[in-house]
Amino acid sequence: MKTQPLYDNNPFQKTFQSKVLSCTQADTGYKVLLDQTVFFPEQGGQTSDIGTLGDGKVIDVQIENDEIVHYTDIAYTVGTTVTGEIDWQHRFSKMQQHTGEHLFTGLAHNKFGAENVGFHLSDNTVTLDLNIELDLEKVRLLERLANEAIAEDIPVRAFYPSDEELSQIEYRSKKEIDGAIRLVEIQGIDMCACCAPHVRTTGQVGILKVVSFNKYKGGTRVYIACGLRALADYNRKMDILSQTYQVLNCKEDEIPEKVKALLLDNKQQKYEISEIKAKILMEQIEKYPSEIVDVTIFTEDLDAKNMRDGVNALVEKHEGLCAIFSGNDDDGYNFVIGSRTRDCSAIAVGLRELLGAKGGGSKQMAQGSIMATRSQIEQTL
Ligand SMILES: [Zn+2]
To answer: What's the confidence (pLDDT) of residue 80?
Structure first.
């Protein structure tokens, strides 16, 4: 590798000067190689640093053919010296999340023998995958232990051990690593092979919150948020809560009961509305003189049961085709058709062939849905 990775020894270095080794056109913007950099490239599940380089922006940093490639929005003259600066808030947040991840995974390893089988750290999500199933009680325990370790402000150290030292050290590693192994130690809690920048002490993680977790490939996927990211998440959730209890006009703790009561009420009202609609439909049906052979009713918002009941009532009085279509021209219609004398399943097939209707049924009754206008349906029938 031509570029000296300055982030390796000093994760708190924000600015640097560097010589431009090469600059070539990329699909969008330019690819720049430097003789040294503080920009951490995307690797090991963590997305890259962003920031500025001279007058331009560094949008992405990738390792390509064993070189650290800076993707920039402007071109640079080869051989000149440029000043670079990483977006420190962005980087520091990543360091908080990453050390938090080591802390949680290290504790899961110590407490429950869990192995880390996956890790992803982007600008809005941190996930860690463990090979064992965790329940809420275990997750809460690990979360509490992690926050106790944060309060203890334990030193975090990254170092390259000699081969001899390495043979004496037990450490976690997601995969076999070629070349020099860099270890990150959280004293007394965790030792893990890792290439990323970390905070100096666990206290700098601030807080670790498990945002959610779920079963994943026979183990558990845990979503965490640390430091200011956890604070932002807390505020987001507080906003959702306060909007909710204002709308519901109740205290925060009363939200679940209030929502349950509303849903029950809603169900009851739907039932009552459906009863009223059924009554109106039956009154409408009674007004058709029985001499009319075929009856087609267009209406809105009738449920399937009311439509079937309606068609059954029509069929008793009228000997031709009896049909109810519920819906509108924009969203289409649900339909039920019935007849004593005509083949309803054949009519449903006809509606399918001519108007693309879905559904079917028996000779006596068929039902389905149709994306067509009222006049198209009337002409087809
Ligand atoms: Zn790591």
So the answer is: 98
Q: Considering the entire predicted model, what is its pTM?
A: 0.79
Q: Given a cut of 80, is residue 285 above it in pLDDT?
A: yes
Render pLDDT for 7-33 as a digit per residue (tens, 0 to 9): 999 999 999 999 999 999 999 999 999
User: Cβ atoms within 10 A of the Cβ of 53, count?
Assistant: 24
Quick one: which H or E segment has residue 184? strand 183-186
Query: How many Å apart are CA 14 and CA 88, to the nearest integer?
Result: 7
Query: Are 371 and 233 found together in one domain?
Result: no
Pair 51, 159 in one domain: no
Chain-centre distance of CA 37, in angstroms?
Answer: 33
* Measured distance CA(368)–CA(336) in Å, rounded: 7
Residue that finishes a domain, picked among 49, 65, 86: 86
The answer to whether residues 81 and 180 belong to one domain is: no
**Chain segment 348-381, per-residue pLDDT in tens:** 999 999 999 999 999 999 999 999 999 999 998 8
Quick check: is 257 in a domain? no
Distances (CA, A) of 285 to 107, 219, 295, 325: 71, 59, 9, 14
73 and 96 belong to one structural domain: no
Residues with CB under 5 A from ligand 1 (ion): 194
Same domain, 98 and 233: yes
Distance from Cα 192 to the centre of ligand 1, integer Å:
7
How far is the centre of ligand 1, averaged over its atoms, from the C-alpha of 28 (Å)?
30
Q: Give yes or no: residues 214 and 304 share one domain.
A: no
Neighbours of 193 (CB within 10 A): 17
> Which CATH number do you get for residue 99?
3.30.980.10
| 231 Cα to the center of ligand 1, angstroms | 22
Q: For residue 345, give its domain range.
A: 272-380
The alpha carbon of 272 and the centre of ligand 1 are apart by a number of angstroms equal to 59
Question: How many residues are given for the chain?
Answer: 381
Please determine, for residue 179, whether its predicted confidence score (pLDDT) is greater than 80: no
Distance from the alpha carbon of residue 225 to the mean position of ligand 1, in angstroms: 15
The number of distinct structural domains making up the chain is: 3
CB atoms within 10 A of CB 134: 22
Check whether residue 106 and residue 217 sit in a common domain. Answer: yes
Which uninterrupted H or E stretch holds 16? Answer: strand 15-25
